[in-house]
Specification:
4% of the residues lie in helices and 49% in strands. The protein has 291 residues and is mainly beta. The protein has a single domain, classed as Jelly Rolls (Sandwich). It is globular. The termini are far apart. The chain binds manganese (II) ion (MN). Manganese (II) ion binds next to strand 5 and strand 10.
Length: 291
């Protein structure tokens, strides 16, 4: 087995979205689609009470994508045009497949200690599924399997680890999405199919990510908070807690690229300019939501 090495590190940019919500954004939808099948990765961390009330994301549409919300602290209240409503609490996941369209609102709330901490990942849909039926997979914290092995504590949302399968299934990109926490001096190895895109979002501590120890090539200390992007030059990733004795915690994200031309426009990601124009037209004339 050979380790995939790091291609580059993304430093998250502070951006303001929705009704004035400050986020750390590592990946944004772009026509170049360099992280195919992943389109966006946002990190919510509004932990300063001086920021005041959180305004959230009032009603907005989506078409042609999946949005995945994973909360570590605090919660997000949501409701949509199809009559679905609920609360994504601490440790919960919502995997929302927009298909041909939903209109929803997402309202983050601070937890008991005043913190909000969570992530939203956007995953593309292939052309053949962009106009499919909207669907939710909601998983409560207690239903997410936790696998402990050799100093690693893995919360598995989608994909397989050590014989355990995550609860989110039947996603077009065959994604892996898991929260990995390594104790000091622990090592974690995970096989990744050739051709799959791999990202690691390091949000606590620091770790040595992959590389070939015989050459030192591509080895790198990745400090929180940043995203490591891997090359397609091996068949596994290897992570060690850093030598200073800190642990490390990261979201490991991997999936099969669709290799289709995309046209992103705000909350829509389609394959042609005409499909985007049609989407905007439908929003204007009231035919966007299809029962
Ligand atoms: Mn949304």
């Amino acid at each position: 087995m050979t380790n995939r090495t790091i291609s580059h590190i993304i430093e998250p940019q502070l951006v303001i979205e929705g009704a004035g919500v400050l986020l750390r954004r590592s990946v944004a939808p772009r026509a170049s689609n360099e992280y195919d099948p992943f389109l966006l990765f946002d990190h919510f961390a509004f932990n300063n009470p001086l920021e005041g009330p959180i305004r959230g994301f009032p009603t907005h549409p989506h078409r042609g994508i999946e949005t995945v919300t994973y909360m570590l602290e605090g919660s997000v209240n949501h409701r949509d045009s199809l009559g679905n409503a609920g609360k994504i609490g601490s440790g919960d996941v919502q995997w929302m497949t927009s298909g041909r369209g939903i209109l929803h609102e997402e309202m983050p709330r601070r937890g008991e200690n005043g913190n909000i901490y969570g992530f939203q990942l956007w995953v593309n849909l292939p052309a053949a599924q962009k106009m499919g039926q909207p669907r939710y997979q909601e998983v409560s914290a207690g239903e997410i399997p936790v696998v402990e092995k050799d100093g690693a504590t893995v919360r598995l949302v989608a994909g397989e680890y050590n014989g355990t399968h995550g609860p989110v299934t039947e996603i077009a990109a065959s994604p892996l999405y898991m929260d990995v926490k390594l104790a000091p001096a622990a090592k974690f190895i995970y096989p990744i199919p050739s051709g799959h895109t791999v990202l690691a979002y390091v949000f606590e501590g620091a770790g040595e990510f992959s590389g070939d120890p015989s050459t030192g090539s591509g080895q790198g200390l990745v400090e929180s908070v940043s995203m490591a992007v891997f090359k397609d030059d091996g068949d596994q990733i290897e992570v060690k807690s850093d030598a200073a004795g800190r642990g490390v915690q990261f979201m490991l994200i991997a999936g099969a690229p669709f290799k289709e031309v995309i046209v992103p426009y705000g909350p829509f990601v389609m394959n042609t300019v005409e499909e985007i124009q049609q989407t905007i037209q439908e929003l204007r004339n009231g035919t966007f939501i299809k029962q």
